[in-house]
Amino acid sequence: MSPHHLALLITAALLSALLALGLSLQLGWRRDAARWPHHALFFLTCAGALLSLELAWRAGAAAWALLPALALLLSMPRTRPGRADHWQRALLSAAAFALGALLAWSS
């Protein structure tokens, strides 16, 4: 397994954990206790997406496919937590990453 494949897998796992924690916050589970881990996971997911993009680019894979996901992730702070635009952008970011990861993986 190449480094960019490993980075894509780790970032996908971080993104999955971030979405699961975000859903639990949305449903009201331990809202105050889980907010800082959600922010930490967000930072790690953004860093993982950037690292995945760089490693895919260095490997000659379709790194451009990860740009929409990274742009959507980095635009997330413009939305307010708990509102529809926040979770909609989160799901759109996840879908963009999944599609970008598939394209970067197979090239």
UniProtKB/TrEMBL annotation:
UniProt keyword annotations, A-Z: Membrane, Transmembrane, Transmembrane helix
Transmembrane portions of the chain: 57-75, 87-105
Domain of life: Bacteria
Protein name (Swiss-Prot/TrEMBL): Uncharacterized protein
Taxon lineage: Bacteria, Thermotogati, Deinococcota, Deinococci, Deinococcales
